[in-house]
Amino acid sequence: MSLPQGAPPTRTTRVTLLTEGTYPHSHGGVSVWCDQLVQGMPDIDFDVIAVTGTGREPVVWDLPPHVSNVWSVPMWGDPPAGRPPRGRARRELTDAYGRFLAALLDPRAEDGFPAALYAMARAAADGTLSPFLRTDPAITVLTSLWNRPGIAVREARPTLHDALTATALLEHALRPLTAPLPATGVAHAVSGGVAALPGLAALEQHGVPLLLTEHGVYLRERYLGYRTAPYRWPVKAVVLGFFRLLARESYRKAALITPGNRYNRLWEEEGGADPESIRTVYNGVDPAAFPAAGPEPEVPTLSWAGRVDPIKDLETLIRAFALVRAQIPQARLRLFGGTPRGGEAYRERCEALAAELGHGDAVAFEGRVDDIKDAYAAGNVVMLSSISEGFPFTLIEAMSCGRATVSTDVGGVREAVGDTGLVVAPRDPAAMAAAALDLLGDPARRRAMGEAARLRVIEQFTLRQTIDTFRAIYLELPSRARKSAAGPAPAPLSAAGVTGSVAL
Asked: Which domain of life is it from (predicted)?
């Protein structure tokens, strides 16, 4: 998407995208969304602060000239340079860190979290925070705190190993505070959690407004992930306490929160966000880029597209397919998408499950496909089996291609599908298989659902609506911040000030 023909670029503001594990170093739905925003707004200057794994990840997207800078902040690479503080600076940082930990572990001390976090952000900018967190005094602060009477985790008898583990995890999680902070424009965090840290620091130090977009609910996904993490409860209490209070602070300080669906909005309100600061902005696709897919495959086929990741719950999909194949022996399951680095064990587990169930010959991991449309065209029915989603691109792309879908009832899936596909409970292979069999056995119903799905995308979920909405937000927020600094706080940004696919 581009500016209207003949319109000169306005260059009226600068946007710093704050990402984690996505754009521009990785493919996937959120990365596609970021690329859409950047490519669709040649009139806006962009920078990117990208939280990455090791810092050695290559840039995998073609960046246009109006992306000026990309800074990578490795969470798990070499530690940031710097030295531990000394003298008064050491005492002040030790005190701030103590208040920070107390907020994570003691509900009575939670109000101290913001001030402590911003004190630590300033230490990170000075190059002293990470070195301090790698010293014995930081460990001592934690061991002293969680052995105090009245601290709940004390009953779990935390060990020195727990303290070392929790402190190391916090040190890594706080590394985004070392990034160069934007001093003007808008900081746009495209997820919650650690990606928002530079935005919060930029707001506190420079008054840069923070825009927060959550595609999935970051805090919910951390809870899901840590449920099976190999840590004892004292470690989980510290880390999840950090993510919970970070979410609350992000919701509280964001000038505007733009979840990708109404489901996320409920979590954000529960987490402390002012309802007046939340505007739902749906993802969009270009229907011309995802035209009707055409003839279906002759062999009954279920297709899936996405990254091979536990949150996509391919194990449930494979178990459901086994039930489908019991009724339709010639059926096939084709899985399109790459395996992220570090996710190889999960893919191997899924392949082993298919073989164990006796269907390894009918389940194909196709890898990344050059044209994602081919993944949707490969199936009579397109499946989505995730246990957590925002407003999934793969779903609305498949709908635009005119394919009937079976999806799990997570995030904004039901909002996307409406009555143009079948929605089942997550982690329920029997329900998923029943829905797939229903559609495989009824070509007329599949065709009617596919046609209705494409029409729904054209009417409600186009890329032009999304781009126009965010351009209006980008131009409005700096102006509002300046007016707020000059006088009484303005009224909340209303739907009238944001065009496009906005749902209140």
From this structure: Bacteria
Convert the pLDDT of each residue in 178-190 to its tens digit.
999 999 999 999 9
CB 72 within 8 A of CB 52: yes
* Residue 73: how many other CB atoms lie within 10 Å: 24
Kindly list the domain boundaries of the chain, sorted by start residue.
Answer: 14-78+179-281, 87-173, 301-460
- Taking residues 265-288, report their average pLDDT: 91
Token pair listed for 77: 């690479």
Q: Residue 312: name the closest of 265, 363, 361, 347 by CA.
A: 347
Beta sheet of 45-52, edge-to-edge order? 67-74, 45-52, 14-20, 186-189, 210-212, 256-257
Query: What distance in Å separates the CA atoms of residue 446 and residue 453, rounded to the nearest whole number?
Result: 10
Residue 276 main-chain phi, psi, to 5 deg: -70, -15
Q: What is the pLDDT of residues 460-497, one digit of tens each?
A: 999 999 999 999 999 999 987 766 666 554 444 443 33
Rounded Cα distance, 394 and 376, in Å: 9
Q: Which residues, other chains included, contact 438 with Cβ-Cβ below 8 Å and sequence gap of 6+?
A: 422, 445
Q: What is the 3-state secondary structure (H, E, C) of 309-370?
A: CHHHCHHHHHHHHHHHHHHCCCCEEEEECCCCCCCHHHHHHHHHHHHHCCCCCCEEEEECCC
The residue whose two tokens read 């339709």 is: 328
Q: Would you give the DSSP letter of residue 388?
A: S
Interatomic CA distance for residues 161 and 164, integer angstroms? 5
User: What span, in angstroms and rounded, lies between the C-alpha atoms of 501 and 473?
Assistant: 12
Asked if the domains 14-78+179-281 and 301-460 are classified in one and the same CATH topology, the answer is yes
Given CATH 3.40.50.300, say whether it is the number of domain 14-78+179-281: no
**Cα angle at 472 between 19 and 411, to 5 degrees?**
50
DSSP string across 135-147: SHHHHHHHHHHTT
Output the CA torsion sign for 248, 250, 253, 254: negative
What is the model's pLDDT at position 225? 84
Given a contact cutoff of 8 angstroms between Cβ atoms, the answer to whether 43 and 2 are in contact is no
Exposed (0-12), middle (13-18) or buried (19+): which is 258, by Cβ within 10 Å?
buried
From 488, 500, 468, 493, select the one nearest 256 (Cα to Cα): 493
Under DSSP, is residue 151 helix (H, G, I), strand (E, B) or coil?
Answer: coil
* Per-residue burial over 445-468, b = 16 or more CB atoms within 10 Å of its CB, e = otherwise: ebeebbebbbebbeebbbbebbbb
Cα dist. 276→265, 280, 390 in Å?
11, 11, 21
Percent of residues in the chain assigned helix, strand, coil, to nearest 5: 50, 15, 35
CATH of region 301-460: 3.40.50.2000
Dist. CA 105–CA 143, nearest whole Å? 12
Give the residue from 383, 46, 337, 33 showing the smallest Cα distance to 215. Answer: 33
